[in-house]
Write a structure and sequence with these properties.
Blueprint (H helix, E strand, L loop, with lengths): L5 E7 L4 H10 L3 E3 L2 E7 L4 E7 L4 E6 L4 H5 L4 E7 L2 E2 L1 E2 L1 H13 L5 E3 L7 E4 L8 E3 L8 E5 L4 E5 L6 E5 L13 E2 L1
Antiparallel strand pairs: 1-5, 1-6, 1-8, 2-5, 3-4, 6-7, 6-15, 9-13, 10-11, 10-14, 12-13
Length: about 180
């Protein structure tokens, strides 16, 4: 049995993300539900609310022996699987996601098919030294890619704030498959 902790993605009942975080905390299971700071407007007021960034997903950092306890948690439907096993998310991707949400608010999430393009490094701004694959570049708009999740996060990063590391080479087009709940 594997005793190493890994980040895993849980697929949850709709709108249960925050409830599941509380239940997992009560079981002393390390978890992370990325919350997006969003300004909501009503006729008489504005308010900043925290909404789950990825609907029906919560991340847990656990060892194999905790999997049953996690799956027995109310509202958890299943682990997100890859090749028949719970998909392991890289620690660096969870840390990048946490940092991204600290630096930006009103983040938009877009489900994408992962395409390999030029690899870049951000050389200025809150995400300085982060490397990634460019999915799209417009005037001053860059999509930051988290490949193992199959999602991209959008931030306003000026073109002058990135530098090309390696150009796209179609001979090495290794597109990861899309993760779907099982």
């Amino acid at each position: 049995m594997n005793c190493e902790k890994h980040w895993l993605a849980l697929y949850t009942r709709p709108r249960w993300e925050k409830k599941i975080v509380k239940l997992l905390n009560n079981k002393h299971i390390e978890n992370y539900c990325p919350l997006n700071r969003v300004e909501r407007k009503w006729a008489d007021r504005k308010k900043v609310v925290f909404e789950p960034l990825i609907a029906s997903y919560v991340f847990v950092r656990a060892v194999e022996s905790e999997y049953v306890t996690i799956k027995e948690t109310d509202g958890v439907l299943n682990f997100v699987h890859w090749l028949g096993k719970p998909a392991i998310i890289k620690d660096s991707e969870i840390e990048s996601l946490k940092q991204f949400l600290l630096d930006y608010s009103n983040v938009r999430l877009e489900k994408i098919d992962v395409n390999v393009n030029d690899e870049v490094k951000i050389i200025y701004g809150p995400l300085v030294s982060r490397e990634g694959k460019v999915v799209e570049v417009q005037y001053n708009y860059v999509k930051i890619l988290l490949p193992s999740l199959g999602y991209s996060l959008h931030a306003q990063v000026h073109k002058s704030h990135i530098e090309k590391i390696r150009p796209f080479d179609s001979r090495y087009d290794s597109r990861p498959a899309q993760l779907l709940p099982v």
